[in-house]
Amino acid sequence: xxxxxxxxxxxxxxxxLPVIFFHxxxxxxxxxxxxxxxxxxxxxxLITTIIITEILxxxxxxxxxxxxxxxxxxxxxxxxxLFCLPFAWFxxxxxxxxxxxxxxxxxxxxLSNFFFWIDSGYFSTDAELKPLLHTWSLAVEEQYxxxxxxxxxxxxxxxxxxxxxxxxxxxxxxxxxxxYGAYRAPNATFFLLPTRGWELILGVFAAIYLQYxxxxxxxxxxxxxxxxxxxxxxxxxIYFDHSTPFPSFYALIPTVGTCxxxxxxxxxTVVYKILSSKLFVGIGLISYSAYLWHQPLLAxxxxxxxxxxxxxxxxxxxxxxxxxxxxxxxxxESPFRNKTIFNKNQIFSFSLVGIVFFIAIGTFFDxxxxxxxxxxxxxxxxxxxFLNASDYVMERFSKIQLKDFETSNNPSMKRVLLIGDSNAExxxxxxxxxxxxDNLDLSGYYxxxxxxxxxxxxxxxxxxxxxxxxxxxxxxxSQKLAHLxxxxxxxxxxxxxxxxxxxxxxxxLINLKxxxxxxxxxxxxYLGEVQSRDYKKFGINIWKNTLPLxxxxxxxxxxxxxxxxxxxxxxxxxxxxxxxxxxxxxCPNFDGENLLTFDGDHLTxxxxxxxxxxxxxxxxx
Length: 621
What we know:
Structural class: mainly alpha
Strand order of the largest sheet: 2-1-3-4-6
Number of strands: 9
Distance between the termini: 75 Å
Shape: globular
Strand content: 5-15%
Oligomer: single chain
Largest sheet: 5 strands, parallel
Number of helices: 27
């Protein structure tokens, strides 16, 4: 039987709290996502210790192992998923409900890490709105639980040295692939087991070491190395952020720090006294449920309030996560882990029923078009128009991409380089829908909105941008793009113009004008987003509302800053908001059975056609 270590529960508390505060958006926990890495190391340590102890005592059974994992993971997970269902139905818009349904199926089949890798990045803007995003780490662990015990059973007959050789090779391969992938394919690297496996293996090494060796008897060594481990974890939580390539070599800091705590945080050390305190142990005991609860509470609140949530409410939601975690631990986790209450057959039956149930519910949400099929015929037509519109954004722009200008015998063909985010995609669609493309030789370069359409020193952007943005910035300053900028008759830039990008706009335009003075700035536009809570509260009629011009409270200020800078630099500005709304004080987002935008900003095909014709008729394009 594995000896209980209170400090390990305390270490769980040190892992879960930063994750909760990070997802809540508190800037002083900018690296709080490393809590997941701490969990991985702990899992590797605990699972390996249990398996090796049972193998050495000739008591290990795969069936019993999976029974324990089912008891530990599934009841609390199913309880939280069940809680999510009514909130998803009554709060989420149809498109969000479809996505949520798909995530239910992914979680139930232990594939949510693959789903969220394909669906969205962990640090993307809309990630915070996904109630089950955090389950990606459970999927990684579940996949590890399937592979690792079988590996140990097969390899054990060849001896511990052979096992260590294979583990060390796997560790190095996983670590170096992760470091490479963190820069080249950050999303896949973040979510998948092959690039997370080395963190679990670190815990395996700790377990094997302690299985065959005693803890250090040197008080000074234990004291210093446990403090070092704690400082490494704290450093990662405070100084890492979304721009830190992860899980690259940087991830060695929190994970090695966790290993030091496992190996050297022993009775008598300062760190042991902290981690084994009642507060830390208490939070550690409910840490799994706390991890499960925090993301749905935060995500559904953001959907409902449809705006930035105050710090007071965020703190309340964090505390509510801990309260709900206690409820889950007391009345869900503990009873299901008690073999005198639920036997093995009941646990496996419960698990199978739960998996089938949530797959069925998720499939229903998906196949019913997010509940649209239960509206009347007319409303179904309108809402399906809305769903289809969201697939239209990148239709044209993705086909253009960056390319050299075509050679043409038609001297009237204007060579245009279009740079920007999804608003540039919108503009491209509008050009095509108006047939103005016949007069243009178009090349396009896409930059995600969070990266900004900028030409400035990349070192100044690090605090704002993720790794992939820095890579884009490198390309932006490359000779290839500079040549196209120089060769273009006009350079068009269209962006949502986030507040921080405006801080760098003047410098960016000055640098750009040195290469090509013929610049036009397009946008932004905002018809007023139809919010989740409004949609559910007022039903289909919300789509028929006439929404106020620039109803997003932050939009007018950003627009004014943009126009002020452009006026000062004498850069032409095509105001898509005024064009699309035809100079009116209010701008309808709904016209008969047609939506102009599906989210207040991005154009439907109908909206693109309307805007394109306006721009073509006014000779703006």
